[in-house]
TrEMBL record:
Source organism (scientific name): Actinoplanes hulinensis
Keywords of this entry: Hydrolase
NCBIfam families: CocE_NonD
Gene3D superfamilies the UniProt entry points to: alpha-amino acid ester hydrolase ( Helical cap domain), alpha/beta hydrolase, Galactose-binding domain-like
SMART domains in the record: PepX_C
SUPFAM superfamilies the record matches: alpha/beta-Hydrolases (SSF53474), Galactose-binding domain-like (SSF49785)
Limits of the Xaa-Pro dipeptidyl-peptidase C-terminal domain: 318-553
Protein name listed in UniProt: CocE/NonD family hydrolase
Region (Disordered): 514-560
A family per Pfam: Peptidase_S15
GO MF, one example: hydrolase activity
Length: 560
């Protein structure tokens, strides 16, 4: 690169990765390298190398993703090259000049394995090969790591750097049997426009609400949403809505959760409390910890695409890899760094959840009270209308702005039950995933139970902390049996949290039957989601029986 282009590249990096000072090296870019796959298809990749790198030989980084190799998406790759790492940045099959047809998740294992074998044969490979990337570019890491460790250890990655990701996208697409409409349809529209080079609609859709997407969210049956939002039926979206069961071969062939514990290479993870993949990433961390290989973990106050996370991820990735491969200590004092919301404080912890955490049940009382004491009985009820679905207010998403959202107006809706604790005499901290156990009865054969925890401030703001959903009675729903009165205990796993409710604040729990369009509304019929078109109002009841109380288990952490 010319000196002027190097300066411009550094300036762009400083703007796109705010808070990160570009590394000491200028970089050289070789575009459109052709990487052969086992079936003869060639995938395109860019090689970004540091100029004049000295000191210990650092590993070569492989990044594989479907979002292109130019502009902002290449910022992290170039930032790592400026730190002294050679980086191969490859476009997935069927995207941005790579051959073949893009079918999300399906081809990433075979293509990733072929790429790793090819990289190690190249003269510019430094001998050690590691992987890096967020979201889909993290999935491509999981796709190869466990399989190659077992079947081809000489070519397996020597380390993984996993940012806001998980190894099984089916589990988030059908989250506890509820279809993640906003993420699935929004991502489908974006990728369809990328593949078809519809750049103006793609760009405009990132700047303002997209009317076609909003109409797609409102479309029934679900199988028609892609035609409305993207202007065409998209083959993978059609597969997603048809395959409701995660045990279907369509999903099991692309799930790499089982091979997570086979990975023996060191792992660095970073995520945020408002990320769409958070629960699953922490479960992967727990699984590896259980077998004696705990990854290095950072959890911050971020959403999936929060601008503040990128700079931290680059700094910590570079430090992690230098520690493992160049003998330069990374400066970490503990394996887990976690930001405690509500207190706005970082903690260095020996593990996650932190030691000393204990579960305490808080019960839902008939009069809208939340308290550790058992309830006295009674029933609360509301009517859910899928033609006026309970809206999504906050919560994890792919949208840029994420974090706590005021739910005060939302809680005034007739289809939202609210249970509030007394003002706290001292701070209370939760650390881990809360679990709600709601005694629930519906007039319809299929229904959703959505539970959210909020932090109610003295000024009346009710700020979201974490939430979760579960569908009962659908094609793929796991069904707890009803009792003689038709109530059943519905268990809802909420997003993990590390949050302090300050003295004078109140803990609040919402119970409703949806969060549209984050999750597709439940029509109430129990018919296949892809074809269900008729909607049915439902009367929903929550029991406060003393013998079988509705309650939420809070993971309480004594330190504050």
């Amino acid at each position: 690169m010319s000196t002027l282009r190097q300066r411009l590249s550094r300036w762009v990096q400083s703007r796109t990765l705010k808070g990160l000072t570009p590394g000491p090296y200028d970089i050289e870019l070789r575009k459109d390298l052709r990487v052969p796959m086992d079936d003869g298809v060639e995938l395109l990749a860019d090689l970004i190398t540091p100029i004049g790198a000295t000191g210990p030989r650092l590993p070569t980084i492989v990044i594989r993703g479907p979002y292109g190799r130019r502009g902002m998406v290449a910022g992290q790759a170039r930032a790592l090259a400026r730190e002294g790492f050679p980086v191969l940045f490859q476009s997935c099959r069927g995207t941005w000049g790579s051959g073949g047809v893009f079918t999300p998740q399906i081809d990433e294992q075979r293509d990733g394995m072929a790429t790793h074998r090819w990289v190690r044969k190249q003269p510019w490979c430094t001998g050690r090969v590691v992987t890096f990337g967020p979201s889909y570019m993290g999935f491509t890491q999981w796709a190869v790591a466990g399989r190659m460790t077992a079947d081809d250890p000489e070519n397996a990655p020597d380390a993984l750097c996993l940012l806001v990701t998980m190894p099984d996208f089916g589990a988030i697409t059908w989250d506890n049997a509820a279809f993640s409409l906003r993420n699935a349809l929004g991502w489908t529209q974006m990728m369809s426009r990328m593949i078809n080079r519809e750049m103006l609609p793609l760009f405009l859709g990132m700047l303002r609400p997209d009317r076609r997407l909003l109409r797609g969210f409102g479309t029934l049956p679900l199988s028609g949403g892609d035609t409305v939002a993207a202007g065409r039926a998209v083959h993978w979206y059609q597969d997603w809505v048809v395959h409701e069961r995660l045990t279907d071969g369509y999903w099991t062939q692309q799930s790499h959760t089982a091979s997570v514990v086979d990975v023996t290479a060191p792992i660095y993870m970073i995520t945020g409390w408002y990320d769409i993949f958070l629960p699953w990433q922490l479960r992967n961390h727990a699984a590896l910890t259980e077998v004696g290989r705990p990854p290095l973990l950072t959890v911050g106050p971020w959403g999936h695409s929060a601008p503040g996370m990128g700079a931290v991820a680059i700094r910590e990735t570079a430090a992690f890899l230098r520690d493992r491969f160049a003998g330069e200590p990374d400066g970490r004092t503990a394996p887990v760094r976690a930001f405690r919301t509500g207190a706005d404080r970082w903690h260095d912890l020996p593990s996650w959840p932190p030691p000393g955490t204990a579960v305490q049940a808080w019960h839902l009382h008939e009069a809208g009270r939340l308290h550790p004491d058992a309830p006295d009985g009674g029933v609360s009820f509301y009517v859910y209308d899928p033609d006026d679905p309970t809206p999504a207010v906050g919560g994890p998403s792919l949208e840029p702005k994420q974090g706590p959202v005021d739910n005060a107006a939302h809680e005034a809706r007739a289809d939202v039950l609210v249970f509030r604790g007394d003002p706290l005499g001292e701070p209370v901290t939760i650390a881990g995933p809360p679990v709600a156990r709601i005694r629930f009865r519906s007039s319809r054969p299929s229904f959703d139970v959505f539970v959210r925890i909020c932090d109610v401030h003295p000024d009346g703001r009710s700020m979201s902390v974490c939430d979760g959903i579960r569908r009962i009675g659908g094609i793929a729903a796991a069904e707890p049996g009803p009792d003689e009165d038709g109530f059943r205990e519905v268990t809802v796993d909420l997003w993990p949290a590390f949050h302090t409710f300050a003295a004078g604040h109140r803990i609040s729990v919402q119970v409703s039957s949806g969060a549209h369009p984050r999750y597709a509304r439940n029509p109430g019929s129990g018919e296949p989601a892809a074809t269900a078109a008729e909607t049915h109002r439902a009367t929903q009841e929550v029991s406060h029986s003393a013998a079988h109380p509705s309650h939420i288990d809070l993971p309480m952490w004594p330190s504050s």
